[in-house]
Amino acid sequence: MDTQPTLNSIDTGRATEAQGPYDPQYDPLVDASPGTGRDYAATYWIGTAGEPPGDDGPIEHDIEVDVAIIGSGYTGLTAAIFLAQEHGIKATVLEANRSAWGCSTRNGGQAQCASGRLKRSQWIERWGLDVALKMHQECVDGMETFKSLISDIECEAQPGGHLYIAHRDRIMPVLEKEARLLRDTFNYDVKMMDAQTVRSKWINDHEACGAMQESEGIGIHAGKLAFGYLKKARALGARVHPSSPVQGWETRGGFHYLKTPGGTVRARAVGVATGGYTSNGLHREVKNRILPILSNSIVTRPLTQAEVEEAGFHSTQFATDTRVLRHYYRLMPDNRVQIGSRSAITGRDAPEKNMSSC
Ligand SMILES: Cc1cc2nc3c(=O)[nH]c(=O)nc-3n(C[C@H](O)[C@H](O)[C@H](O)COP(=O)(O)OP(=O)(O)OC[C@H]3O[C@@H](n4cnc5c(N)ncnc54)[C@H](O)[C@@H]3O)c2cc1C
Fold this sequence. Notes:
Blueprint: H1 44-48, E1 63-70, H2 74-87, E2 92-94, E3 110-111, H3 120-127, H4 129-149, E4 162-165, H5 171-184, E5 190-194, H6 195-202, E6 210-214, E7 218-219, H7 222-235, E8 239-241, E9 248-252, E10 255-260, E11 263-272, E12 294-299, H8 305-311, E13 318-321, E14 327-331, E15 337-343
Parallel strand pairs: 1-2, 1-11, 2-8, 4-13
Antiparallel strand pairs: 3-7, 4-6, 5-6, 9-10, 10-11, 12-15, 13-14, 14-15
This protein binds flavin-adenine dinucleotide.
Flavin-adenine dinucleotide (FAD) binds at residues 34, 70-76, 94-97, 101-104, 106-110, 245-246, 273-279, 282, 295-297, 340.
């Protein structure tokens, strides 16, 4: 029987080694440079994603390209995928550190049909129904795009939806009103349930006062997803160059000149995909555009079956609560629990081994 090679079985060659250790104190708001070839943060995702896929090595001399993309996280790699698939453009991705070094290998792994923190009712209040409907459609289209992107990437996808848990009784009427709006105005499939149903059928969250369950929502392995995008982009002809930080950017005669330690990349067009790791000096257009938001994600050891039962996990759907600084968690395929939350914004305690919570 013929077996087609999958992205996971394609030999992509070797990944460029780290040129320096991970620096937990690095702060893109303060440091002038994003680093060069820094190793990955020692995240659960990196530890369990398998060997990083092959790449195209650091830039070693001057080159000319049509499109250069700065940053090799989800944004940069998917931009390269779509440029190849939809426009036949083989982009050149420049990454300061190791491939997919930034947030894309450090996050909570939740794909939600959402955009930002505001509820749909708040969209309507601020921007009117017409804009809100368009924003909702963008979220729906985004989920469909995401499903199609991961259809051939083994990233431990856990589809099925999202549970939005009311952490106070007073939140339930707000959620009920929002659920009606979602169903009636946005034609979006959501259900309300009381605390007893949440605890006995979904998750025995002792603080749950009820929940809204939405049908869209997929949990994924963040590192496997990033590595899958990397393989897919390269399989489509994109080139990905780690250890190639853009340290200078000049534009003249209709071309961009991106200076990296190994050579200058002359490009007709440039995409900036540096996300929260954008240094102030990269380009005047992005100067002072970054706000600090600190977000945490931890993963436990696999729970025993007895522990899963005691904790009352009846579902692997991820749950977020309605706190302003929200908590979220899910049971992963091997019975680990992934837990996330927001927190203070400086991160100065990161190197401490024993941090107290406040
Ligand atoms: C703890 C945590 C939990 C999160 N949970 C979720 C979640 O559940 N769901 C969700 O949708 N989102 C979540 N996010 C956000 C999500 O991870 C990011 O939005 C996403 O990964 C951003 O991808 P990106 O490609 O834009 O940036 P990144 O993945 O951060 O990539 C930017 C890259 O640019 C590189 N770079 C910077 N400067 C230069 C330069 N000058 N030259 C070359 N390269 C450069 C960096 O080295 C970096 O690798 C979470 C984030 C965190 C931190």
